């Protein structure tokens, strides 16, 4: 009887140990590989026309009790938000699109973009840019916008912090790498120092986004917008009949760009007026 009890006791302990081992495996932390990766040898994803993935493009899905609605198209998609990354914990596992996740490939996860979508990602803290293929769903933690593969995050210089503020812009594979005639003429006009029969010949405009009596407030807004916009942001000194420091975005040389920046500012909750 004692012998049977001892065997049962030993068997119970073994089961307990195995259960702990299993739990520690399931809950193991994500992280980088245990070998050096030279990210400079890994090129950006190359946008190409592909059909929608067979999996992962449901119109609506639910994760952790929250509904997500996928976009029918990535056309003109542009957003600013928090980027994170994932590595060894998910390496070689199937993504939402059915492809295997490769932490050494230039890929990413997004909650609503069609699968696949190619996007340009800009780290707004150091202005590094990459191109990745979105082939997975996520991230579903907090207010994060995109989850990058390990090597993509390394190329952006964000591994140390784990997250960073980025701007992502969807790429149309049909037009990627091809410049229209207007863009070519505009570039040549800038390089030659004059503009003839182009939009550059029009007077530059500025978008006023704020006016403050306290210069420190104006500088704070200027710093914020400089990190988010590619267009210069300046502070105009108070005029003779005014004591206000005016924060202005510009110069802007064409109406289309001014409209685009105005819409971007509106998305940030900032009103703008032409000056």
Task: Tell me what the structure shows.
The chain is α+β, with helices and mostly antiparallel strands. The chain is built from 5 helices and 12 strands. It folds into 2 domains: 39-171, Beta Barrel (Barwin-like endoglucanases), CATH 2.40.40.10; 199-274, Alpha-Beta Plaits (2-Layer Sandwich), CATH 3.30.70. The strands form 3 sheets. Strands 3-7-4-6-5-8 form a 6-stranded mixed barrel. It has a 4-stranded antiparallel sheet with strand order 10-11-9-12, covered by helices on one side. A hairpin with a 2-residue loop joins strand 1 and strand 2 (66-69). 25% of the residues are buried.
Unreliable residue runs: 1-28, 194-201
* Total DSSP E strands: 12
What is the distance, rounded to the nearest whole angstrom, between the alpha carbons of the first and last residues? 95 Å
Identify the overall geometry. elongated
Structural class: alpha+beta
**CATH fold node name of the largest domain:** Barwin-like endoglucanases
Gross CATH architecture of the largest domain:
Beta Barrel
Helix content: 25-40%
CATH class of the largest domain: Mainly Beta
- Strand and helix order: HEEEEEEEHEHEHEEHE
Strand content: 25-35%
Major β-sheet annotation:
6 strands, mixed, barrel
* Secondary structure tally, helices: 5
| Largest sheet: spatial strand order | 3-7-4-6-5-8
User: What is the CATH superfamily of the largest domain?
Assistant: RlpA-like domain
Provide the residue-averaged pLDDT: 82
Total number of domains: 2
């Amino acid at each position: 009887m004692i012998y049977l009890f001892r065997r049962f006791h030993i068997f119970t302990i073994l089961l307990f140990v195995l259960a702990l081992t299993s739990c520690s495996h399931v809950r193991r932390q994500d992280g980088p590989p245990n070998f050096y990766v030279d990210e400079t040898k890994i090129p950006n994803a190359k946008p190409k026309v592909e059909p929608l993935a067979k999996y992962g493009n449901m119109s609506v899905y639910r994760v952790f009790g929250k509904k997500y609605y996928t976009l029918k198209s990535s056309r003109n998609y542009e957003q600013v938000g928090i980027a994170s990354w994932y590595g060894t914990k998910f390496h070689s596992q199937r993504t939402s699109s059915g492809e295997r996740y490769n932490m050494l490939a230039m890929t990413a996860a997004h909650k609503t973009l069609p699968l696949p979508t190619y996007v340009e990602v800009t780290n707004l803290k150091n202005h590094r840019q990459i191109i990745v293929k979105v082939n997975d769903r996520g991230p579903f933690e907090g207010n994060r916008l995109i989850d990058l593969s390990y090597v993509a995050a390394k190329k952006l210089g964000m591994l140390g912090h784990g997250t960073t503020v980025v701007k992502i812009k969807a790429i149309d594979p049909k037009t990627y790498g091809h410049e229209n005639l207007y863009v070519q003429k505009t570039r040549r006009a800038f390089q030659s120092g004059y503009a003839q029969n182009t939009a550059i010949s029009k007077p530059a405009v500025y978008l006023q986004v704020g006016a403050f009596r306290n210069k420190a407030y104006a500088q704070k807004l200027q710093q914020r917008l400089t990190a988010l916009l590619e267009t210069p942001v300046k502070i105009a000194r108070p005029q003779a009949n005014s004591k206000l420091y005016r924060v202005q975005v510009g110069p802007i040389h064409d109406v289309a760009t001014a409209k685009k920046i105005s819409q971007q500012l509106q998305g940030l909750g900032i009103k703008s007026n032409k000056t």
